[in-house]
Amino acid sequence: MPRRVLDNPIVPAVLGLLLERPSHPHRMLSELRQRSEHHAAVVTRGTLYNTVAALAEAGWVAAQGRERSGNRPERTVYALTEAGHEELVRRLDGQIRNPERDFSPFLGAVTYLGALGPNGALEALAERVRRLRQRTAGDEERLAAALATGVPRLHVIEAEYALCLARAEAAWIDAVMADIRSGSLAWPAPVAAPTAPDSAPGAAPHPHPHER
After folding, report:
1. Contact 81, 62 (CB under 8 A)
2. Of 46, 53, 14, 20, nearest in space to 32 by CA
3. SS3 per residue for the chain
4. Which residue of 68, 76, 134, 188 is 20 to 30 Å from 112, comparing CA positions?
5. What is the pLDDT of residues 135-190, one digit of tens each?
């Protein structure tokens, strides 16, 4: 199994699930998708099964038995090994200590915000912050409901962090929109479009020296 499979960012998530309880890949995939919008978008069945196979080969997880549910085929249940627990702790410790620069599509788009013009930027940002606050309200309700059922705060701490980031982003967008409206975030004068070279199709020919 290629070493790069063990570098997949879902490895800590899989090890973390198995820290909670032994599980089979089908259940792991379902839980990853339920807990994270990012995982729901990027984790495929093939990716997860390859990752679990790599973890087993590395000795970080081990088959514990087989489980059958109804008429479905038997599934191999995996458990976290001592080596896997040590690896999980090592990775989590490093990821928490070291702030990485995460590149998001929004960050890439904001880089060229000027291309939208002031009015276009205001419209786009207003729509984003509206959708962001709508999503945040739903997330707040789900978090409150989970805590109300007695789920320990530590078990949903990642949802709390995600809400904190969303609120900070919404506040930043509000501030940028206010600066656009007041004119303190000025738009530079548009750059003139480059002229076509004389050799371009349809360009007028150079006059003959004797015709000048």
Report:
1. yes
2. 14
3. CCHHHHHCCCHHHHHHHHHHCCECHHHHHHHHHHHCHHHHHHCCHHHHHHHHHHHHHHCCEEEEEEECCCCCCCEEEEEECHHHHHHHHHHHHHHHHCCCCCCCHHHHHHCCHHHHHHHHHHHHHHHHHHHHHHHHHHHHHHHHHHHHCCCCHHHHHHHHHHHHHHHHHHHHHHHHHHHHHHCCCCCCCCCCCCCCCCCCCCCCCCCCHHHC
4. 134
5. 999 999 999 999 999 989 998 898 999 999 999 999 999 999 999 999 999 998 77
Task: Tell me, rounded to whole angstroms, the distance of Cα 12 from its chain centroid.
Answer: 15
* C-beta of residue 66 within 8 angstroms of C-beta of residue 74: yes
Residue 131, both tokens: 């959708």
Residue 23 buriedness (CB in 10 A; 0-12 / 13-18 / 19+): buried
Render the burial of 119-154: b for 16+ CB within 10 Å, e for the rest. Answer: eebeeebeeebeebeeebeebeeebeeeeeeeeeee
- Cα separation, 159 vs 145, in Å, equals 12
What's the CA gap between 138 and 6, in Å, rounded?
34
pTM of the full structure: 0.73
Residues recorded for the chain = 212
